[in-house]
Structures are given as structure tokens and as C-alpha cells.
Amino acid sequence: MIKRPRLSRSPDPNVVRVRTEGNGLGAFKTLVVLLLIALQLGVLIFLYMRIVEAFGAYVTLSLALSVLTAAFVLSSDQSPSTKAVWVFVVLVLFVAGFLLYFASDRRVFYGRSRRRCDAIFRRAAAYAPLGCDTAGADARVREDAAYLAQTGQFPAFRGTDAAYFSSGGKLFDDVLSRLRTAQKFIFIEYFCIADGALLERFIAILSERAAAGVDVRVIYDDMGSHSTFRGRTKRRMKAAGIRVLPFNRLVPALNIGMNFRDHRKIVVVDGQTAYTGGANLADEYVNEVRMYGYWKDAGIRMDGSAVDGFTFLFLRQWEFLSREEEDYAPFLGLASPRANGALYIPYACGLDFDAPIGRNVYRNMIASAQGRLWLMTPYLVPDDDLLDLLASKAEGGADVRVILPGVPDKGIVYRLTLANGEKLAKRGVKVYCMRDSFVHSKLMLTDCSAAVGSVNMDMRSFYEQFESAVYTDDAAVRTALEKDFVQTFVECAPLSLQRGALGRLFDRLLQIAAPLM
Amino acid sequence: MKKRPVAADFDYDYIALEVKRAKAERFRRCCEHFGWEQIGRTADRRYADVVHLRFRRPHDVPAKDALQLLQVRLELAWNAGGRAENALAAHTLFALLGLLAVAVCLLAAGVLLLVFLWATTWARALGFVLAGLGVLVGAEGLRRLAGVTGKSRQKHRAAIIAARRQIRALCAAARALRAAGEEQAAAIAANSSAADGAADKAAQTKNAAAAAGSAEGAAQGGGI
């Protein structure tokens, strides 16, 4: 190894830098995947150009096919902004536009998996937890509950107590103390699991519980965790008796299916306690590692009947990944109902459902909000309809406030987020950025309901990812959320976007691609 | 190099930082206000003016979320001050270079004058013109440099003062948060032990009553 000479002075003008451990192997894996995909793309383009050159009439044929494809797109059920972008792409790149469109059609790359999902859903329906009626609840809540029941068969539950956590640290401290008392089973599902202090605490408890005979299962997303959750750690967990399954294993193939990720965050303990929220199982979510300033997150714990909703979601996902039929009965109906009469509706969204349920829950909550609508999200890249609805609510006199990050994690998405925030601010929405912080919470609070979960206010969460959340009308939870918002407003500054002419032009170009992000 | 997994620690949180050697001691004292205790210090392998500091803090420190946010701001304030000091040094250097350039211009004009002093009239005239130009350009350059550098120096000095003020304020806020948190924790502990004490006393009273009752009963029963 070549020894570099020691220099007297560091070129970094900063006085202090928090050390984060480098992950050379993860970076190498990412580079290999990207290079292989680029190679495949290069080969495809090369072959395609040869075909175009060889067949003179191909250009005419491809133009005709692209026009037909554009007509097909316009008649589809997608949002108007998505349709507009695709028509633009298909016609401008007419030589290959129609191929691009159909190559990104999830029916091509997810069709077989969807059929398997449907079969699992049909079989699991026999075990589906029965909810309760929603009589007595606010009419708007009953409407939202009916929507969730109709589109996703998500029942409403009474008899659930909940505790809201305004930070990842508080959430995971509670999760860890609850895991210690597990007797029957522990189900864990996260988008990102990362080696570090938090995961070591989890492994210590999970290993001990697995040794005591508890059924411990972990699902992680392979792309979300690929550079952070090392193979050595997974082997250690498996050796300790913990069952670990990846969701949608990342392969270096040019395949739109690689875009579909499991973004859920679910923990279920003994069928009696469930957690969901925005935080993943990694040190930055509890601020033990510095990535983008202070990491603001949130989560909720439920004890009681509603836990069955999350148990059911997890078991269906597990059955899909393990390809083994699951007996759901031993895992359901274990929680004693609490005295709380508030409604809780655990729900999910993803490609296993026909409708974009996560998006539509937000849409319905926005539409029915009276007086107050507060939102916390790391990304604000929804479709134009949702943006317009938010703005219209503010123009109608409602107190509409949005909290965004003050520190970005993804530059391009952040530019879009701020540009959309500016659009809303111009129409009366109060848009704030939390100073020195990355806001990762996904919260919506209205005057009658609240949603806490993993669903970002962006197209990826609405259309490309598997998400989980809970909808509730519980006044105690709404009060806790309100307190969190009020305390966070103190740490925020109103959005103030400074851009030159070039910056504005760049943002307009990004807006074109936004519906496809 | 392969890394061994870190053993699970439920009692402490850890943080490792790279700090400029000249500021390390002051930074360590700041971290103490946030509840951190330094447990390690090593020299950087690449840069002689950087040290690696390792700290730990009890996991259940009160007001942890607020302390973590303040900690981020503390690091940002330290870095803002450091960058301003760096820029101030760079501006001073720039000013010195500017002065040197002016001196070179004047010297060149002077050399030309000396060379042509013993030459023809036109050369002498050219020498005076060049020298005059050198003085004018140099004076203008100096004036501009003084203006720019002066403003910049003021700006950077103000930034350094603001950063130091912010660091003091953040440390004070952290101390206050910890003190309030510890008071609250002590109050909870006191209430909890008072409640336990009351429960114990009630249990003892009940046991005593039960014992007295059974003794009485035994005494009575003894009569049967």
C-alpha cells in the first residue's frame, strides 16, 4: 500500500465534522450495479440503432406506433400530468418512445407478481380481521373509513390505545423496551436497515428472544438496505434463529421492476402491540449519526384491536416473499380490546392494490378538512390535482400549513419540493422549512382525523412503493400531533426561495419530469 | 480492513468527531455542556492539524431530542466561525498580494526612469509616463483593495463574533435543558419513591392488622 505523506494542514475550513463510517463495499456494489445497467442500456441502444439503420421503413413504422401509443396513453387512467409527460416523451422520441412507455408498464414487469399477490389476497381473505362499525364517528371519518374498506378491505377498529412519538429516538426506545417482553412473535418490516448502534441493540434483544422460542421475522427492502445492511450481519441474525427475507432483491438488470420498493415501517409484537411511522432502523433516524443535520421523525404505537391490521399486512407480505402458505389464525385476535372508542384504521398501499390508496386517503382528508390542515413531509412532489386541492383549501380560508426539510437529502427532489412549496405559498398555504433539519415525518392532521405512517407526499409513494400507515380520529393522538407541530413551528422559518433566471428555468425543466419521479 | 460489529450498548450513546487541533479543547468543553464525556482522542493520520475525538453520553439523558437539535446547531456555529476565520486569513493574504503588485508596478516604473535617465528625451518622457501610470494604477488598485478587503474583513469579523456568541448561547441553552430535565427526572423519582413508600406503608399496616386479627382470633380460638 502506498503511504500518503502527512500534511500539516487540512484543506477543510470546517472546524468539526461528525465521523460517519465509510462503507466502501456498499459504494462498490452500487457502482457495479450502475455500470452493469449502463452496459445493458448501451448494448440495447446499439442493437436498436442497427435495426433502425437496417430497415428503412422502420422510422415510418415507429412514428405510427408512437402516435398509437400516445393515443393509448391519453385514454389511460393515469393522472393528467403523467399522461402529458408520457405523450411528450413518446412523440418526441418517436423512434423508441413507444418502447420506453411499454417497458415501464408495471403490467409487464409486475404482472406475474401481481397475480401471485391476488392469489394470496384471496386465500388470506378468510383470515381477515373483522372491524367494527363506524356509527357515532364524524361523518367525514365515516366516509374515509368507507373508502378504505371499499378499496383495500381495511377494516376500522375500536378498542385501541395509542401513543405518539415525536422523534425516532423516543419511538425506538419504546420499541426496544417492548421487544424485550415479547413472548410469541415479533414481526419487523423496514425499508432501510443499517448496521450500527441501533441495529446492534435490536439484534441483541431479537437474538435473546429467538433463543427463548419467540418467532422473529424481519423483512427488509433490498435496495433501501443494500449498501447499509451487510451480509455478515444478516448471517449473524439467521444464525441466531431470526428469519430474514429481502423484498425485491436488487439485481443489476435493466428492469423497471427494480423501481418497486417496500417502503413500509412495521413492528408487531405478540399481536398486541404494533408500531408504524416514518423512521427506519438506522442510526441517522435516532440522530446517532449525522447525515443531513438534525433528523426529525415520528411514529405511533398501538395496543389493542387495531394491531391485527398490521399483523395481517405483514403476514401477507411474508407469504408473498417466502412463497410458503401461511396460517394466519395463530397470529390474530390476540389483543384484548381497550376501552378507547376512537377509530383506528391500519392501511397500506402499493402495487398490490388497484387504486393509489395512500394518495387518495390524503386527498380525501384534504378535501374534507375544515378549519385546519397541517402536513409534515420530506418531499412535496404530488400530482397537480393534489397541489391544487391543498391551495384551494387555503384560499377557502382553512389554516393550511406544510413543514418541509430545511436540509435536503436529494438535491433534485428538494428543488422540486421547494418549487411546489413556493406555488402553494403564493396561494395562501403557510409553508415552513425546519432549520438545520431533515424532516422525515409523514404526518397529516386535520380538525377531525390524523394519518401517521410511511407515505410521503410524492409520486413514488403514491404509485411505485409499498407503504403503511394508520388513520385515526382519536382526539388524544390529534392533540399529541398538534403539540408536535406547534413545537416544530418554533424551529421553522417561512419558505423563502431565492433563485436566479437560470434556477427558475432549471426548475421548470424539472417540473416536466416530476410526474415520472 | 474488516470491521468487527460493535457490541450493543443500551446505556450510552457514542459520537466520533474530527476537530481542528487548535480548537479541540474548547470544543470538548462545549460538548460537556451537552452531557458528553470525552473517552478518546487520536491524531489524524493524514493531517497534523486534525484530531479525532470520541465522546459518550448516557442514553437516557433528559431532553435528548432538543439537545440533539442544539448539537447540530453547535457544530454549524463552530464551522461558520471556522470558515470566517479562514476567509479572513485569505483576504489578508489577498491584500498583501495586492500591495506587492502595486510595489512591483512602482518599481518597474522606477527602473524604466533610471534606465532612460541617461538616454534620449523621448525615452525619459516615456519613463515619466509609465511611472505616472504605475502610480495611478497602483493607487487605484490600493484604494479598491482597501475598500473590498475592509468590507470583507468587517464582514468576516462580524461572522466570527456572531458564531462565538451563538456557541455561548447554545451551550447555555443546553445547560439549562439538562438542568431542567434532571430536576424533572428527580421530581418523578421522588414522587415514585413516595408512592412506593406509601404503598409499602399501607401494605405493612394491612399486614399488621391482619396479624393482629389472626392473633386475636387465635387468642379467641384458643378459648374454644
Describe the structure.
The complex is a heterodimer of chains A (517) and B (224). Chain A is built from 17 helices and 21 strands. By secondary structure, chain A is α/β, with parallel strands linked by helices. Chain A folds into three domains: 25-106, no CATH class; 111-147 and 158-349, 2-Layer Sandwich (Endonuclease, Chain A); 357-516, Endonuclease Chain A (Endonuclease, Chain A), CATH 3.30.870. In chain A, the strands form four sheets. In chain A, strands 6, 11, 12, 14, 15, 17, 18, 20 and 21 form a nine-stranded mixed beta sheet that branches. A seven-stranded mixed beta sheet of chain A has the order 2-10-8-7-3-4-5, with helices on both faces. Chain A is globular, with a radius of gyration of 24 Å. In chain A, 46% of the residues are buried. With 224 residues, chain B is mainly alpha-helical. Chain B is 75% helix and 11% strand. Chain B has helices spanning 24-33, 64-117, 121-223, and strands at residues 12-20, 37-43, 50-58. Chain B has a three-stranded antiparallel beta sheet with strand order 1-3-2, covered by helices on one side. Chain B is elongated, with a radius of gyration of 37 Å. The N and C termini of chain B lie far apart (86 Å). Mean pLDDT of chain B is 78; it is low at 210-224. Chain A binds chain B through residues 4, 6-10, 13-19, 21, 166-167, 169-170, 173, 176, 195-197, 200-201, 203-204, 232-233, 236, 287-288, 290, 293-294, 436-437, 491, and chain B through 3, 5-10, 13-20, 23, 27, 44-50, 52, 60, 64-65, 68-69, 72-73, 75-76, 78-79, 81-83, 86-87.
